[in-house]
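Q: I have 350 residues here and want to know how they pack in 3D. Can you give me a structure?
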Amino acid sequence: MYSYDGEDVFVIDSHVHLWDASEENIIHEGGEQFIQCFHDYHTGFTPEEKQWEMDAYRAYSPDRMAEDLFGRGHVDMGIFQPTYLTDFYEEGFNTTEQNAELAEAYPERFVLNGSFDPRDGEEGLEYLEELDAKYDLQGVKLYTAEWRGDSKGWRLDSPEAFEYLEKCAELGITNIHPHKGPTIRPLNRDAFDVADVDDAATSFPELNFVVEHAGFPRIDDFCHIATQETNVYAGLSVIAPFAQNRPRKFGEMMGEMLFWVGEDNLLFGSDYAIWEPEWLVPTVMEAEMTQEQRDEYGVELSTEVKKKFMGKNAAELYDIDIEEKKAQFRNDEISEQFDLGDQYAGVGAD
């Protein structure tokens, strides 16, 4: 558990993956372009001494991921967000079943999300039901820009997508995580547009729409949707690493989101392994807005605000009792493996 300014900060990394972009898994040139683009984002925002070589970046072991998150990454819990891309990768890039390998090894430390694609029709609805029956899903990650045959994307506000959202509501899968962020080669920019979140959030008030990457670079569009729809949240992966080498831009984006969206509707994510929480968590916790930004937006990146988006808000969405988890983690397998028990010893209620 991370300690900042004398206070314990329970960190839930709401956006992590266990992916396989090994050369033998790639079946379409888009798969190579995709992982190369990921690596470009990685090197563009990661401190030079923390950057991964491409061979290591293509595919990493579950053991490395556990160590990177919990052993030295300051993370207490992680939420898996799958990205299938089965037209690019033979076994998929990062499927629910692949993520389950680690989630089932450490069930107390991970939340396992599923996924759906409305282009799969009735078969896809059956698959969603099977995933829920097997893993008791609380959320799904949606990739509206994923290629499927001749189709290069789908919309969250389409009748087909609404059928799946109705199924999610029926099954009690309440957290919907659409990827709405920067373009990734070779996918299409327009398929990442945040506009389709609006009607979906209005039509399904019983569901929570965690817009991953907060629609960046369409922050203004996202904020004006989220301020109208109180069930819309900002996933801060992609936003968070700006604190490293674009701190003023980070302060500007956080100011906009705190002003329009509010401190209760923001969730930290590292997007592991695009970035590592080892350096990202301290960087975000130490980030500040300029005095000019504080005056303009009327908000601050206080420790209490940070504690909310670093873990408390995700805990609220996923029914995680933080104090119960702290007690559990004092002597769980991860704490024993990485000698973390002292971090949870004697902690009390916040």
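Q: Anything worth noting?
A: The two ends are 14 Å apart (CA to CA). The first strand starts at residue 2 and ends at 4.
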